[in-house]
Amino acid sequence: MKVSVYDTYVPKDESTIMHFDILVEDNTDLEDVYSYGKAYLNYKGISDYKLTTKECNFCHMETAPAHVEKEIREKGFYIIEMENCN
Predict the structure, then answer these.
(1) What CATH code is carried by the domain that includes residue 25?
(2) pTM flag (> 0.90)
(3) Which residue in 33, 60, 70, 81 has its CB near the most CB atoms, within 10 A?
(4) Domain with 8 in it
């Protein structure tokens, strides 16, 4: 499966920026990408944050490994935590 990768940076607090990638099936609507990012942020305890192109941008496309493809088919998205996500 070809997936689109959205590079995302969100303030965790006043001095820390969370960096994570949102992986979705190619041609996923941008509003859905933002919705998936918001669901992830809610899971991490950051509620009421509105993602925009300022924080979340298309980065590239790649072929997803089987475990990523499985999760995208089940949930619609896959998150790769890069920095300051825990």
Answers:
(1) 3.10.510.10
(2) yes
(3) 33
(4) 2-83
